[in-house]
Amino acid sequence: VQLQASGGGLAQAGGSRNLSCSFSGTFNGFTSFFYGIGWYRQAPGKHREEVSCFSSADLSTYYSGSVKGRFTISRGAAVNTVVLQMESLKPEDSAVYYCAFGPSVIQSNLANQAAYAYWGQGTLVTVSS
Question: Three-state SS across 36-94?
Fold first, then answer.
């Protein structure tokens, strides 16, 4: 499975930005009809943390406390795309954002990094104050 995260860039505090994760390929030779997409981020000097996750199996979503109410994860208009809409951005949202793919993600393991077997390269988001 290959993933491509895009949409990063510079934003002002209070502004918005949309990240897109597109994915393709197969898992163990089979097309994964159900999947989980997780958005994670890592700021300089900090551990990677979960931001928001989505499962196509049960349509469950997860948001970390720091982004709940400001970020929205959803399927994109294009096939095999998941979008992270980020609003009311804060300087502390600045980080490299990664999207990850998991073939067996449901609500119970939605935010568990170990559930995501494939990771994209990341896209940098910088929020200025």
Answer: EEEEEEECCCCCCEEEEEEECCCCCEEECCCCCCCEEEEECCCCCEEEEEECCCCHHHC
CB atoms within 10 A of CB 40: 22
pLDDT (tens digit, 0 to 9) for every residue of the chain, 129 residues total? 899 999 999 999 999 999 999 998 776 655 567 889 999 999 999 999 999 999 988 889 999 999 999 999 999 988 889 999 999 999 999 999 999 999 878 888 898 899 999 999 999 999 999
Tokens of 8: 């990063």
